Amino acid sequence: MAAPPLPGPLAHLAPLLAHYGYWAVGAVVLLEDFGVPAPGETILIAAGIYAGAGQLNIVAVAAIAFTAAVIGDNIGYLIGHTGGRAFVHRWGRYVFITPERFQKAEEFFTRHGGKIVVVARFVEGLRQVNGIIAGTSGMHWRRFLVFNAIGAALWVGLWASLAYVAGTHITAIYDEISRYQLYALIALGALVAALVLRHVWRRRHQD
Predict the structure, then answer these.
(1) b/e code 124-134 from CB counts within 10 Å (16+ = b)
(2) In the predicted model, is pLDDT for residue 205 greater than 80?
(3) Is the model's pLDDT at 78 over the cut of 70?
(4) 116 against 197, higher pLDDT
(5) pLDDT tops 70 at residue 24
(6) Span 84-99, mean pLDDT?
(7) Is the pLDDT of residue 68 over 90?
(8) pLDDT of residue 95
(9) How far apart are CA 52 and CA 57, in angstroms?
(10) Which conformational region is residue 92 in: left (phi greater than 0), alpha (psi within -120 to 50 degrees), or beta?
């Protein structure tokens, strides 16, 4: 069976998948997940379409994408953990991030970081810097590893299975989901704000 024509924004990935297959999926997802601007989610969807057409094995696609996502985020975590805090302390004051404010952010991320790590996997922009932020904020590595793996499994499972089943109709589904991403971001922001306010309220009453 011939490879199906990839629709819309996926079309430019056809030569990459045709020549490198699974290697392309692993490499691009890995690069995206430690901060490099690469189309990780897009190539995962394209690979799912190819798997649905019999060009790739969907189990292999999912396993490779999951492994690459976890490794990539852990590279990002290492970058943030080893150099990020010093960078923020040195340059953060120029964008009003004082050491005191950064310490409060670290405490907040440590308390609620697990939820953020999982949700960030589905948000463009946050997905690419998720590991770096976790490392910079001082989140414990084992805690990050667990929640990162959960987020990666959900992310890969969603897009790989949808693309496998929907085929070239996936772009319509993707556009529909992306349309509601803004509402998801607003809801996430409201949740974070509520958690911050609760934290401040408790601190004031404890004092």
Answers:
(1) eebbbbbbbbb
(2) no
(3) yes
(4) 116
(5) yes
(6) 60
(7) yes
(8) 45
(9) 8
(10) alpha
Read off the tokens for 133.
């932020």
Q: 113 and 139 in contact (C-beta within 8 Å)?
A: yes
Residue 41: which residues within 8 A CB-CB, separation 6 or more? 32, 124, 127, 155, 159
Q: Give the closest residue to 22 by CA, choosing from 75, 67, 82.
A: 67
- The Cβ of residue 193 has, within 10 Å, a number of other Cβ atoms equal to 10
Which tokens is 85 given?
């805090």
How many CB atoms sit inside 10 A of residue 20's CB?
A: 13
As a whole number of angstroms, the distance between CA 89 and CA 148 comes to 26
| pLDDT at position 194 | 62
Q: Which helix (H) or strand (E) holds 145?
A: helix 141-166
Q: Which of 196, 75, 67 is nearest to 135 (CA)?
A: 75
| Token representation of residue 126 | 């946050």
